[in-house]
Amino acid sequence: MFVEFFYQLKEAGIPVSPTSFLRLQKALSMGLIRNLDDFYTTARAILVKSERYFDLYDRIFAHYFEGADLPDPEGADLTEAAKLLLEEWLKRPEWVAEALGLKKEDLKKYTPEELVKYFMERLKEQTGQHHGGHKWIGTGGTSPVGHSGYHPGGMRVGGRSRNKSAIKVAMERRYRDYSTDGHLTQAQMGEALKRLRRLIPVGPKDQVNVDKTIYETMRNAGEIEIVFDRSLKDKLKVILMIDNGGWSMDPYIPVVQLLFNHARYQFKDLKTYFFHNTIYDQVWEDPTRYHKPMKVEDFTRMDPEARLIIVGDASMANWELMTPGGVIYFNEYNRIPSIDRLRFLAQTFRHSVWLNPKFEEEWRFTRSIGIIRQIFPMFELTLEGLEKAVAYLKGK
Amino acid sequence: MSDSGNVRQFEGGSKYVLDPDLKQIVNVSIALEMPLLLKGEPGTGKTMLAYAIAESLKMPLIVLNVKSSMKLIDALYQYDTLTRLNDSRFGDSSRDVSNIEDYIRMGKIGQAFVSDERVVLLIDEIDKADTDFQDDMLDILEQMQFDIIEIDKTIKAKHRPVIIITSNAKKDLSDPFLGRCNFHHIAFPDREMMREIIHVHFPDIENRLAEICIDTFYKLRDLPGIEKKPATRELINWIRALKMDPGFHAKSLEKGQVPYLGVLFKKSADYAVALARTARARRI
Predict the structure, then answer these.
(1) Is A41 close to B179, i.e. CB distance below 8 A?
(2) Do the chains contact at B225 and A291, CB–CB below 8 Å?
(3) pLDDT averaged over chain A?
(4) From CA B161, how far away is CA B9, in angstroms rounded?
(5) Top-confidence residue, B109 or A34
(6) Do B32 and A265 touch (CB under 8 A)?
(7) Cβ contact (<8 Å) for B25 and A49?
(8) A222-266 pLDDT per residue, tens
(9) How distant, in Å, are the alpha carbons of A171, A239, A244, A249, A310 from that of A277?
(10) Number of inter-chain CB pairs under 8 A, A vs B
(11) Beta strand spans in B125-268 (E)
């Protein structure tokens, strides 16, 4: 019974399993389901294992049992696609031009809104184009391929020249919420980070060491001598600061994502902050870098034994780092140059490292890297670099 | 092994307002002998449900509070080597030192298995444990048996317990895990439901007061920038606080004053936000 319903759920992308379907049959045969309402809730509880699919389930249920039209799921997707398109347009004008069948020069005539509208219309009238459209949009966003900075509309776009510098970013802040994205499997990165979990005996002596107890008891000729060990406690606190903004970090975002996803469960106490380019007066707790700022001064209140790990490419113009007012957003102004902030952090936390996703060979081409290296020990964001960083953090 | 043929129906507890969906799901899970996984934001009554089931079906409740450092064996049994060692030295206990079984203590799952009557086993906050723990545990719950290696004995469940598992969805649970339980997501109660819940807890509350409290509560929940939104538990405690205060009048709530904000907002940052907002509302 309801085999077709089952397959409709499956086709819609809900991960339903045959076992659970059989279970539903069992529930039916046991007379547990007396009406359609019962069937609705029971089938959902048995077949659908995440609230994320509840909405989809509802639509299919309505379609199957009430004959309701399956709502066009493209509505939501299109807006999302449009956003992606806009991002893409700003980065790779000629790709977009090609995809929309326009000349590159013609693109200049459109405002972003008009372009998105145009794009949406194209998608609606041509379903064939749709799939292709998604494909290149999806893959382009974090592509590590280098590209020259160029933008037909005159706005600032991510230049991917060797020395990455951003003059005042005149765009709305983009962000990538690392934590929501991707179900990453166990990778090398996690292995390396695990080594950070240093077990230090600090707990009370309350664990019986059975082997030693037996040995000591024997030595005592049967008089019981109980040997206690300290219980192990994982005391490591980690403060992670991630450069998640700007175009210059774009190629490295997948790498940072990997690290971040692993770091989340690796430590007893992990605090993550975000910054853009370099650290000025504050860092942010939220990836949007908007809602929860945290003043750099306030880090003195934290445990100085915490390990500070900064992830960023450390590539910027010298004045961004060295002068007051170097912050690249219009609406912010920093009184203290970033370099002093970095020094301050390095002094506050004895154990600190900077992880750089750029390869070590490239470091000497960028001056700001050289300057920051004098403040923080810098390591590559590779397995090898991580191991070195961890060894460094443990070594002290 | 179990008496699934004549399962009593779960009808809700004395202090638990049960929505019909959930009732059906609970009863189906009991009948199918499947663990029921409950997800939902804190304060939606996931844990309370297990208490209500135990109360309604008149079964004892065994609670396993999962901790991040917990090993599965801790939930099954514990071999008390220290007591045995002590007994072997002093020999003044009634236990038989040569019988290891005397020194095996059952963990929460073990207790649920050896219990002479059918019990409700609540496994609270499963998402705190790691994936291996979760998968291995469900293996055991499916087979309804485990081995005690020290005495080479298999413990089989006398009665299949009614298993309720809760998760705060901090981590995604693994597919094999999800495949073996029924799932329900408890949404945050709407006003209608909340009204019922309030009346269950405060049978003598005036309607007007309840309305205003619920109204204020939902408004406060919608404040932007709140990290930990107040949940049902906070609302109940808050109303309790309001009722205790002889100087409190429902009118002050209507005016936008919110006393005892600290009962609703437990994080100091949230408290500050809420305080600022309500203070502003008062001025207007």
Answers:
(1) no
(2) yes
(3) 67
(4) 15
(5) B109
(6) no
(7) no
(8) 787 888 877 665 567 788 888 876 666 666 666 666 666 666 666
(9) 15, 18, 8, 8, 11
(10) 66
(11) 145-148, 153-156, 162-167, 182-185
Smallest CA–CA distance, residue A178 to chain B, in Å, is: 15
Q: Is the pLDDT of residue A355 over 50?
A: yes
A331 to chain B, any CB pair closer than 8 A? The answer is no
Q: Is the pLDDT of residue A278 over 60?
A: yes
Strand pairing class (A228-234; A199-208):
antiparallel
> What is chain B's mean pLDDT, rounded?
82
Distance from CA of B47 to the nearest CA of A (A): 18
pLDDT digits (tens, 9 = 90+) for A182-207: 222 334 455 555 555 544 555 567 77
| Highest mean predicted confidence (pLDDT) among A45-54, A97-106, B29-38 | B29-38
Using the beta-carbon criterion (under 8 Å), do B32 and A223 form an inter-chain contact?
Answer: no
> Taking phi first (over 0 means left), then psi (-120 to 50 degrees means alpha), and beta for anything else, what does residue A331 get?
alpha
Which of B183, B188, B273 to mutate against chain A (most A CBs within 10 Å)? Answer: B183
Lowest-confidence segment of A167-181, A284-298, A336-350, B200-214 by average pLDDT = A167-181
Q: Is A224's Cβ below 8 Å from some Cβ in B?
A: yes
Instruction: Quick: pLDDT tens for A83-110.
Output: 555 555 555 555 555 555 555 566 556 5
Best mutation target, A34, A36, A46, A294, to test chain B (most B CBs within 10 A): A46
pLDDT 10s digits, B161-196: 999 999 876 566 777 888 888 888 887 888 888 888
**How many Å lie between the alpha carbon of A69 and the closest alpha carbon of chain B?**
25
Mapped to the 3 state alphabet, what secondary structure does chain A carry?
CCHHHHHHHHHCCCCCCHHHHHHHHHHHHCCCCCCHHHHHHHHHHHHCCCHHHHHHHHHHHHHHHHCCCCCCCHHHHHHHHHHHHHHHHHHCHHHHHHHHCCCHHHHCCCCHHHHHHHHHHHHHHCHHHHHHHHHHHHHHCCCCCCCCCCCCCCCCCCCCCCCCCCCCCCCCCCCCCHHHCCCCCCCHHHHHHHCCCCEEEEEEEEEECHHHHHHHHHHCCCCCCCCEEEEEEECCEEEEEEECCCHHHHHHHHHHHHHHHHHHHHCCEEEEEEEECECCCEEECCCCCCCCEEEHHHHHHCCCCCEEEEECCCCCCHHHHHCCCCCCCCCCCCCCCHHHHHHHHHHHCCCEEEEECCCHHHHCCCHHHHHHHHHCCEEECCHHHHHHHHHHHHHC
Nearest chain A CA: its distance from B17 CA (Å): 18
- Tokens 């399962």 -> residue: B7
Which chain B residue's Cα is nearest to A51?
B185
| Residues facing A228 on adjacent strands | A208
How far apart are the CA of A166 and the nearest CA of chain B, in angstroms? 31
Q: Lowest mean pLDDT of A369-373, B130-134, B138-142, name the range.
A: B130-134
Q: Does A187 touch chain B (CB under 8 A)?
A: no
Q: Which residue reads 């499916």 in tokens?
A: B142
CB contact under 8 Å between B172 and A224, yes or no, is: no
Q: Which of B24, B78, B180 to mutate to test the interface with A (most CBs of A within 10 A)?
A: B24
